[in-house]
Amino acid sequence: MKITFINVGYGDAILLQHENGYTALIDGGSNLSQEFEGNAYRIRAAEYLKCQKITHLQAVFISHIHEDHVCGLEAILNDITVDRFYVPYPAAPFLQNTVLQPADHAPCSVQLYTKALNAYGRILQKARKEDIPVQVLKAGTHLELADGLSVQVLAPEPDIVQSYLEQIEQVYASRNAEEITRILGKLDATSNHTSLLLRFEMPDIIFLAAADSCPSQWRAVPSALLKNVNVLKLPHHGQRDAIDEELMQEMPLQYIITTAASDRRYHSANPEVYDRLLAMCTAPPQFLFSDERNYPPYFYQPDGFQAITLVIDSGEIHPEFVHISR
């Protein structure tokens, strides 16, 4: 089994490859040109998959709607066939065939959220047109993906999703630019709360793919499902809200991966987080960063890389740094 964290800068694009051929992608990173221009090691998820000669995915998981998780998927879907989408929301409210536009004075974050919302709608339209199943994942859902690979959905809770969907319906129904902008702002601020929290189980290995689901949203998760996590994709790109000692201190963490840009914008990859993790863990975990080369004292890989692959074999985990000649 391989879990690959593609270096898309600030964003998530995680590739799962089972030895029996099952291949899935969790999110697709950003589509912003400035995220990749002038950086020799960041790579668009679509380009990475092309370099790896991946032309078919059994599944695409879309964790939630934000630009750095959704917008890179459109380029992927131009070249790759997909058997199924897994999403946190029912598709119908997003199939309005309406392009939303916030007011010019809207904050940058709202502009970017709107790009993601429009892209998400186009992805669902494509799925409907091509008869690709779209399955809604709810807390408590358990799926057998391949022999020795299953996933359990731990979050979001139904009431959070329902509140979000009510705002989605309002924004598509409105014809007032200022009201649309106001609602888009609320959606942007709450979208992380709707993020999928996925617990992948393999023999002897538990991988928690947290996307932007922060521990403040895990209170309803049975504590037994948060134990025995060996590999953690740190929530919210390692910002201060990424950890909670009470909920995480019993995890026997071996590897913690942060998908933040090396400029550490928005206070991501925050050193306070790693200091707290080191103080919390009985045995120090190995920190991995998808877009860092030198982050003392936590990480050092001076050669640079386009991805990090965790190779899982017989309960052992071996990290590999992937270099692509371009």
What does this structure look like?
It is a single chain. This protein is of the alpha/beta class and 326 residues long. It has 8 helices and 19 strands. It has helices at 45-51, 67-70, 73-79, 108-129, 158-173, 177-190, 245-248, 271-280; strands at residues 2-6, 14-17, 23-26, 56-57, 59-61, 81-82, 85-87, 134-136, 142-146, 149-155, 197-202, 205-209, 231-233, 255-258, 286-289, 294-295, 299-300, 307-313, 316-322. It has an 8-stranded mixed sheet. The protein has a 7-stranded mixed sheet with strand order 9-10-11-12-13-14-15, with no helix packed on it. Strands 4-6 form a two-stranded parallel sheet. Strand 16 and strand 17 (299-300) form a beta hairpin. Helix 1 (45-51) packs parallel to helix 3. The longest helix is centred in the middle third of the chain and has 22 residues, at 108-129. The protein is globular, with a radius of gyration of 19 Å. The two termini are 26 Å apart. The mean pLDDT is 96.
